[in-house]
Amino acid sequence: MQTTWEFLNSVLGLGVEPKNLTFFQISLRGFIVFAATLIMLRMGDRRALSRKTPFDTVLVVVLAAVLSRAINGSAAFFASIGGGIVIVLLHRILAKVGGRYHAVGEWLKGEPYVLVRDGQLCSETMKKKCVTEHDIEEDMRLTAKTEDLADIKTARLERSGDLSFILKTTS
Questions:
Q1: Number of Cβ atoms within 10 Å of the Cβ of 77
Q2: 3-state SS of 139-168?
Q3: What is the rounded distance in angstroms from the CA atom of residue 120 to the CA atom of residue 132?
């Protein structure tokens, strides 16, 4: 067991000042952190990378910050990986709690806001959410494939930050 630990210390540069890590040690650390991150995200949930809510973005940013320290040697290697696991598990637990309790889900992930109702802009909401008429027009062209606000039944600023459109039905 002692020999294994000494081997890991040597190969990974554990306990070595970050400036003294070799290319090989940083590369090996990067490989291990990459593999560990894939495992962590599989333990977590695919939604963390497919959703764009602030809740999910925080996971990605904080996880990257913690795990990068394991690669560059500015923090303890195994402790950083352990911290990453805790962050992923916390995200998963909070996502489950948010799925069960609507108020918690709204607090964690936000809520959608109506920006257009029956072809009319909801100016107060747009002002609060810093969305301009030009933003709405751009997304109308790109996603709703229309330039006429009168064609829009409802437009929402979704929790992800995307604008979604429901077109009026033609009778």
A1: 20
A2: HHHHHHCCCCHHHEEEEEECCCCCEEEEEC
A3: 13
What are 166's strand-pairing partners?
154
Q: Which domains does the chain have, with CATH numbers?
A: 2-107 (no CATH), 112-167 (3.30.240.20)
Whether 165 and 122 have beta carbons less than 8 Å apart is answered as no
Sign of CA dihedral 91, 93, 98, 99: positive
Q: Contact 128/84 with Cβ under 8 angstroms?
A: no
Segment 131-159, tens digit of pLDDT: 999 999 999 999 999 999 999 999 999 98
Q: How many CB atoms lie within 10 A of CB 60?
A: 14
What's the pLDDT tens digit per position in 42-96?
877 666 666 677 888 888 899 999 999 999 999 999 999 999 999 999 998 998 9
